[in-house]
């Protein structure tokens, strides 16, 4: 005979240990949870007292001037674990209209992370009576086997409890953290300072840290705020992006300002300030957003619809040089250790909602944007995480339902909205890196000029690299890869020397290869070398060499008419012109356009033309996104009168070049997201190979229609190419 009986689901009292001690990952996060309650309670200030912490009876006292708690709130909210009180009852705070930060009902257990004893004193606003409760966690848990058996005595009707007449005071004693020292205190203060956005602090909420011990107060006062550190940063990038209108299919626009300020640099360095700004749609690789827009085929401009659940994003990036001499120039001699230590601990990009920190983004062990991974693949083109202090600012009300914090306070739940946010911020950060590229190069020249590092050639570098691999017992791991790099390099050099391509400067081709090898060698020489980082660097180097290999291989030198090249490149890109609604004009089809013979490697020249067409499509389309009703247009034609030799000319009606010609043909210079920045560099090398030139003339001066006001590029061939 079967029977059915109902059983209650019970929770062991040990759950308090799990939720308090193990759910909250650090002391600073525990204090953060308590501070958030003060913020939600409309307090203008929170004061954290570190009292007697150098002795055995140390205490941490957290005081606020908030709304305080009524007896009803104490019973049904503060003493109820996992309550939805804030989600259900408080949409916005009554005074400062703050959207509630705490909504999981477990934050009050953060105190258990810090101490075994807690005393709570609280007095509601506009009430002369307050309440007090004391909890000894250890004795409380021992008192009952089930959480339902636990109880706490609360005293009500107390007067003169809070000096300001309202607010809450939490006193933590029998602290679990012992052995306080300068490093621990400074780290905690830095973390507490970082609860608020240091560059956009609301004037109605302040966090202060104090101590009754002079030595501890001295440690507290010695902590340098982030605002002081970034004041003298070399690179600064501020931005905002939001929905442009109510049409979800229209494009969102990014507004940004960039500045480079080499403060305290000597005049002899010849480095000057620079500033740039822009307003543009945000361009992201299509592959990044295929999951969200099925119509994407090549590149993707961010639409308003993808900001639903995210809202407006603002932020700033501050970037630094880690070179000792540069730091001495900027911050004064003897402070480089302090600055480097600060960047090591605080470098990275942090997220804030309503100017309050969302952990764990930007912590030393977190690299949510993959900044260091990018740097590993191309060191000179990217900042390292410990070179950047950045903030991302979100509106809590706009993101509360779509970006949900994990219960353990280690970031957002990784849903589609967070994925989109990450990709957007990555794209903006890459724009910052591309915008700062020319100034970074100037800085590198100063560092290289002042460096005492011995400059060595590739052969010696590769031998030293092999020796270091053996010393580190890494030769088994990397010997095959290094061997392939050496073989490819030798092949490239031998082909060049035997091909008769006298116009090509060997130092240009091999400059980047040799520099990358130097970076790899330096990484291996580090005490704690990152194996995965080295592997990525070698792979990146191999990819770079593969890119230039076709240029160095002998190509068929069959003469071909310029008109045939124009016809061929038009055919190659025909479908792209149609897809992007680009009006393409091949003026060789007109009787008044002069033709000429091109004597050179036809495949390489065709590749150079394709690079120019690709750039023209991109920038003319980018302008169409910015300007309603704009029609992209590209023209290819010839010019046999205005240059030293006959020329193929490609012009468009995009926004034109944003860099100087000398800079555009340098490697890794690009304003395209995810672009390698070697397109025009490659074209320049091809033309130099055959004794020609890559020039950037004015379209109007060449007699082209006024519509082509964007970029104009000329491939100028040797004069003996004329028919």
Architecture overview:
The N and C termini lie far apart (106 Å). This protein folds into four domains: 15-223, 2-Layer Sandwich (Heat Shock Protein 90), CATH 3.30.565.10; 229-443, no CATH class; 458-552; 560-721, Heat Shock Protein 90 (2-Layer Sandwich), CATH 3.30.565. Residues 450-457 and 496-508 have low confidence and may be disordered. A hairpin with a 7-residue loop joins strand 1 (45-51) and strand 2 (59-64). The strands form five sheets. The chain has a seven-stranded mixed sheet with strand order 5-4-3-6-2-1-7. It is of the alpha+beta class and 723 residues long. The longest helix is centred in the C-terminal third of the chain and has 25 residues, at 602-626. Helix 18 packs parallel to helix 20. 38% of the residues lie in helices and 18% in strands.
Topology:
Blueprint: H1 15-22, H2 27-40, E1 45-51, E2 59-64, H3 71-78, H4 85-89, H5 110-114, E3 115-123, E4 129-136, H6 137-143, E5 154-159, E6 167-175, H7 182-193, E7 206-210, H8 214-221, H9 226-230, E8 235-242, E9 253-260, E10 274-281, E11 283-285, H10 286-289, E12 299-301, E13 313-319, H11 324-331, H12 336-346, E14 348-353, E15 356-358, H13 371-377, E16 388-394, H14 396-399, H15 416-435, H16 437-450, H17 458-471, H18 475-498, H19 506-525, H20 531-552, E17 560-561, H21 562-572, H22 574-579, E18 583-586, E19 597-598, H23 602-626, E20 633-639, E21 647-652, H24 661-664, H25 679-689, E22 693-695, E23 712-716
Helix pairs in contact: 17-18, 17-19, 18-20, 19-20, 21-23, 23-25
């Amino acid at each position: 005979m079967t029977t059915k009986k109902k059983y209650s689901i019970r929770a062991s009292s040990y759950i308090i240990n799990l939720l308090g001690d193990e759910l909250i990952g650090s002391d600073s996060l525990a204090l953060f949870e308590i501070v958030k309650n003060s913020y939600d309670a409309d307090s203008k200030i929170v004061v954290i007292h570190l009292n007697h912490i150098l002795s055995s009876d140390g205490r941490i006292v957290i005081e606020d001037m908030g709304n305080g708690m009524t007896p009803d709130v104490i019973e049904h909210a503060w003493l109820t674990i996992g309550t939805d009180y804030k989600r259900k009852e408080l949409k916005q705070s009554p005074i400062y209209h703050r959207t509630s930060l705490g909504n999981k009902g477990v934050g009050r257990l953060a105190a258990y992370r810090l101490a075994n004893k807690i005393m709570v004193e609280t007095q509601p606003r506009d009430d002369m009576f307050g309440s007090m409760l004391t909890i000894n966690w250890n004795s409380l848990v021992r008192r009952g086997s089930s959480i339902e058996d636990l109880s706490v005595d609360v005293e009500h009707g107390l007067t003169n409890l809070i000096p300001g007449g309202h607010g809450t005071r939490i006193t933590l004693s029998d602290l679990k953290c012992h052995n306080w020292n300068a490093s621990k205190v400074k780290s905690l203060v830095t973390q507490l300072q970082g609860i608020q956005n240091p560059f956009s602090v609301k004037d109605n909420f302040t966090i202060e840290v104090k101590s009754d011990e002079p030595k501890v107060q001295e440690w507290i006062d010695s902590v340098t705020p982030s605002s002081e550190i970034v004041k003298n940063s070399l690179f600064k990038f501020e931005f905002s992006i939001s929905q442009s209108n109510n049409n979800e299919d229209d494009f969102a626009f990014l507004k940004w300002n960039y500045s480079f300020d080499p403060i305290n640099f000597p005049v002899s360095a010849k480095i000057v300030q620079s500033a740039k700004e822009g307003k543009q749609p945000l361009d992201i690789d299509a592959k990044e957003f295929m999951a969200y827009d099925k119509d994407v085929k090549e590149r993707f401009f961010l639409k308003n619809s993808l900001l639903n659940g995210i809202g407006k994003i603002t932020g700033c990036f501050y970037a630094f040089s880690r070179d000792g001499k540069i730091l001495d120039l900027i911050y004064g001699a003897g402070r480089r250790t302090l600055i480097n230590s600060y960047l090591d601990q605080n470098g990275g990009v942090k997220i804030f909602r309503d100017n309050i920190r969302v952990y764990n983004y930007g912590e030393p062990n977190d690299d949510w944007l993959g900044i260091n991974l990018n740097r590993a693949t191309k060191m000179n083109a990217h900042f390292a995480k410990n070179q950047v202090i950045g903030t991302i600012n979100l509106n809590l009300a706009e993101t509360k339902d779509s970006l949900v914090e994990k219960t353990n306070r280690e970031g957002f739940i990784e849903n589609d909205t967070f994925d989109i946010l990450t990709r957007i911020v990555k794209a903006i950060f890459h724009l910052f890196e591309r915008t700062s590229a020319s100034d970074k190069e100037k800085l590198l020249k100063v560092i290289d000029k002042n460096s005492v590092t011995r400059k060595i050639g590739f052969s010696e570098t590769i031998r030293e690299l092999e020796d270091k691999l053996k010393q580190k017992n890494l030769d088994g791991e990397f010997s095959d890869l290094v061997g392939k790099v050496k073989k490819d390099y030798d092949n490239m050099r031998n082909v060049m020397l035997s091909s008769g391509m006298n116009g090509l400067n060997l130092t240009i081709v091999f400059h980047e290869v040799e520099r990358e090898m130097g970076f790899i060698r330096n990484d291996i020489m580090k005490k704690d070398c990152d194996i995965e980082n080295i592997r990525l660097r070698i792979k990146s180097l191999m990819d770079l060499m593969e890119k230039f290999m076709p240029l160095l291989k002998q190509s068929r030198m069959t003469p071909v008419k310029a008109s045939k090249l124009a016809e061929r490149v038009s055919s190659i890109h025909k479908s792209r012109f149609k897809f992007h609604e680009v009006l393409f004009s091949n003026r060789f089809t007109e009787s008044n356009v002069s033709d000429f013979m091109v004597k050179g490697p036809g495949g390489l020249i065709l590749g150079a033309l394709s690079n120019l067409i690709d750039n023209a499509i991109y920038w003319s389309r980018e302008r169409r996104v910015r300007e309603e009703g704009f029609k992209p247009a590209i023209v290819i034609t010839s010019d046999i009168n205005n240059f030293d030799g006959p020329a193929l000319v490609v012009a468009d009606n995009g926004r034109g070049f944003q860099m100087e010609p000398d800079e555009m043909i340098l490697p890794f210079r690009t304003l395209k997201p995810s672009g390698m920045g070697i397109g025009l560099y490659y074209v320049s090398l091809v033309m130099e190979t055959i004794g020609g030139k890559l020039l950037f003339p004015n379209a109007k001066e060449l007699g082209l229609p006024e519509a082509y006001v964007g970029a104009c590029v000329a491939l100028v061939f040797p004069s003996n190419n004329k028919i």
